[in-house]
Amino acid sequence: MLKICIVFAILIFTSCTQQQKKKELPVFVKTTEIRKIESVLTKKYPARIKSASEVKLSFRVAGPILKVNIEEGDTVNKGDVIAQIDPRDYRIQLQATEAKYHEVKSEVERITALYQKNKISENDYDKAVSGLKQITAKYEAHKNALEDTKLRAPFSGHISKIFFEQGETVDAGMPIISIYNNKAFEIIAHLPASDFLKKKDFTRFSCQSSSLPGEEWPLELRNIVSQANLNGLYPAYFSLKADAGEIILPGMSAEVIIEYETDKEPIFELPSPAIFEQSGNASVWIFNEEDETVTTKTIEIIKVNTSGTAVVKGDFEGTEIIVTAGVNSLKEGQKVRRLPEPSESNVGGLL
Are the CB atoms for 303 and 311 separated by under 8 Å? Predict the structure, then answer.
């Protein structure tokens, strides 16, 4: 019995010793140095390119279309006649009015000469002058109507749509042709509320198109709508400052890039896996080289990049070493060991 007790005690002691050794095994952690960065940040927003001027043109007079001088996709210059209504009736109308105008004008000239000699009353003279004004206005209106049988391009651009063809009769004001400006473009992005509130800090705007990688064009902010849309976003309207009409087309997808200044507090960049939540706050582990322990530090996340890094604010000096892996299994004051950096001959740290 005594032998059994001794053996049992030895087993318990050995087990405890092994557990103690197991507890004392160091925890290895991966670390990196936090990096201080400039106080200017950039954010990107998906957007769509559209023409700054796209209008539907219509005749100011009614009648049958005599001819359409363009086709969809054509490029036109400002002032080009792109369609015409049959001017026959308007020409006859003008000829009749013109004849009447010259008749009344000659009569008024005769009455004016008599009035200057005091041979007719002032009342008769005023009636003659009033009649001339009326026929002059009518004459000018009919001249304009004849000119309005020609539909001219209000600006240089591309024809995107033709709604009526030759021979069809249209009313005044009916859309006939759609034209868009191929020299001026508008880009619309939608900002979340957090970025809308930083608009006073915006410093520079530019855009890129996925259709033209590597190209970047400056933008000018026109305005930001102060009322959110149904998605809770605020539409921001930009004008493309560069002349890129040969390579940019309406409908292309784009990416608006906004640079803005942060607060005067310094900001830092670190790997996003280093961040964990503690008591509802974003935090990181700081590795203390002297005693090889870790302590937490609360941070404020400014931006998470698609590259796997995060931009943060916090009480850092810029030389701190932070833990970048296994952050959820550590405890305050826990002793850890830093994983050695892989050697140049051990590519990827596989050995």
Answer: yes
Q: Domain 42-53+182-261, what architecture?
A: Beta Barrel (2.40)
pLDDT tens-digit map of 71-130: 998 999 999 999 999 999 999 999 999 999 999 999 999 999 998 988 889 999 999 999
Q: Which CATH architecture has domain 66-168?
A: Orthogonal Bundle (1.10)
Q: Which residue has the tokens 């003008």?
A: 94
β-sheet bridge partners, residue 162: 177
Type of residue numbered 177: I
Cα 283 from Cα 268, distance rounded (Å): 13
Phi and psi for 195 in degrees, rounded to 5? -85, -35
Over the Cα atoms of the chain, what is R_g?
40
Q: What DSSP element (H or E) covers 159? A: strand 157-162
Distance, in Å, from the CA atom of 18 to the CA atom of 24, rounded to the nearest integer, reads 10
The domain locations on the chain are 28-37+266-343, 42-53+182-261, 66-168
Q: Which runs of consecutive H residues, i.e. helices, occur in 202-241?
A: none
Q: Which two tokens stand for residue 267?
A: 């900001």
* CB distance 69 to 176 below 8 Å: no
Domain covering 28-37+266-343, topology: 2.40.420
Q: What is the pLDDT of residue 48?
A: 84
Query: Are 238 and 221 in contact, with CB atoms under 8 Å apart?
Result: yes
Measured between alpha carbons, how far is residue 203 from residues 38, 39, 240, 261 in Å?
14, 12, 16, 7
Q: Tokens 């036109």 map to which residue?
A: 76
